[in-house]
Amino acid sequence: MEKQNESFNSNKKIRLKDTRIAYYWNLVLYILSAVTFADGLVSLSSKIWGGALNDFGLTLVFLVLSTRGEQIAAYAYIKDPEQKDKVIRALVENEKTRKPWLGRISAVGWGLMFAGIAIELLM
């Protein structure tokens, strides 16, 4: 196990995005996003507007979370707290630089969920 941690910390022979944890994290969240999208379509066809908005918002949030597999792998594999913090900060900065639209998509998803809850409460 220590040899595997060294590969993450020093020469990066194994990339975090290629780990099983990152793979399964992405897979589960893609499946959850597909299920919530399908549920949103069912709610929409049943004219349950609040439930549809809530499900579509949750779909967007799941899709954004599915891009966080490397961060989850860093939490699982890197034992040194300082190194873990350094790697996660680098991943977050890299994501903000390469994918700035993820924050907006997440905000839209949360907004849709809150709008769906408000509609459900008012109806």
TrEMBL record:
Top-level lineage group: Bacteria
This protein's name: Uncharacterized protein
Residues spanning the membrane: 21-42, 48-65, 101-122
Keywords: Membrane, Transmembrane, Transmembrane helix
Lineage: Bacteria, Pseudomonadati, Pseudomonadota, Betaproteobacteria, Burkholderiales
